[in-house]
Specification:
The structure is a single chain. This protein is mainly alpha-helical. Helices cover about 75% and strands about 0% of the residues. It contains 3 helices and no strands. Helix 1 (about 5-30) packs antiparallel against helix 2 (about 50-85) and helix 2 (about 50-85) packs antiparallel against helix 3. The longest helix has about 35 residues, at about 50-85. The termini are far apart.
């Protein structure tokens, strides 16, 4: 696979991940994301009860939105870096640094959101939610 194709796939993956995070955040904000085994922040504490699930997702909304926006921005910046690399303006290592940094930031926000959600879920469940 060529470097250009890999960068384009990286950009698309980051943008799609941003969209998925945004979808979870929006469903959480509306209160329509019910406890399930597939989508959302799924820790033992958040899945302990419906109240814990709702409290955890509500608490994590700002971080999920940050992760989503980071995915969108990283996707766009990766596309721009790809174009710059194809035109010979920037070398490949610089072009690869853009999506890598975006992915790291996205993961930091998402993981922080999971930690916040876990704490809120335990508090909502009166401290009865299991610890990881």
């Amino acid at each position: 696979m060529s470097d250009t194709v890999a960068l384009i796939l990286y950009a698309a993956t980051l943008a799609f991940t941003g969209w998925a995070m945004h979808l979870v955040q929006r469903l959480s904000a509306r209160g329509t994301l019910r406890r399930n085994n597939f989508v959302g922040i799924r820790t033992r504490a958040t899945q302990a009860s419906d109240a814990a699930w709702a409290a955890g997702h509500r608490a994590a909304e700002p971080r999920m939105l940050q992760a989503a926006r980071t995915g969108y921005a990283a996707g766009v910046l990766t596309a721009a870096a790809t174009a710059a690399q194809v035109l010979g303006v920037v070398p490949l290592p610089v072009a690869l640094a853009v999506p890598t940094l975006g992915l790291v930031l996205l993961l930091v926000f998402a993981l922080h959101g999971a930690v916040v959600a876990n704490r809120a879920a335990r508090a909502a469940d009166g401290g009865r939610a299991p610890r990881p």
